[in-house]
Amino acid sequence: MYGEQPSAPATQAAALFRAAGVQDVLELGAGHGRDALHFARCGFTVHATDFSSAGLRQLRERADAEGLPGVTTGIVDVRDRLPLSDQSVDAVYAHMLLCMALSTKEIFALVDEIRRVLRQGGTLFYTVRHTGDAHYGSGIDCGDDIFEHGGFAVHFFPLSLVDQLADGWDLRQVDEFEEGELPRRLWSVIQTRR
């Protein structure tokens, strides 16, 4: 759906992770793996997770074909507890995963889980569509800033939600960027675990 090349956020995240001395990355919502494979090519150990077994199978096949070591995959429903031990990863990456059809309550619970699995000083790098996006406020209103277009529901983030999710973290950076043909308008957020 999004092509084979890594996303611009993944390229930015890889540079940030390298500068921070990150060794292992947990990707939430890896899909068919364009970003996870980029992280592996950059030398990181990557645990790529998604709800889709088909996407993870494609990711695994590509990692094997390229001979990329250190790539593991796992089916994960982010509404449940993450299947990792406390403080077990250096970085978590989630490109447009938090803005899926998750309630605000589920998003807060997920960010708490991310904090649990991150090591002290670990980095969370995530992107979300925001309320300045052309699709915000149109389509089927599902409540809680979630709107459905063509069978695909998106939770649009006001900046206040980004700020609330950073409570108890060190919020390092919030940038606005555009992606795709619409274009989609997103926040890119970097925060570290205290």
From TrEMBL:
Q: Name one GO molecular function term.
A: methyltransferase activity
Q: Which PANTHER family match?
A: METHYLTRANSFERASE LIKE 7A, METHYLTRANSFERASE LIKE 7B
- Name assigned to this protein: Class I SAM-dependent methyltransferase
Residues annotated as domain Methyltransferase: 25-122
Any single GO BP term? methylation
Alphabetized, the UniProt keywords read: Methyltransferase, Transferase
Question: Which InterPro entries does UniProt cross-reference here?
Answer: Methyltransf_25, Thiol_S-MT
Signal sequence span is none
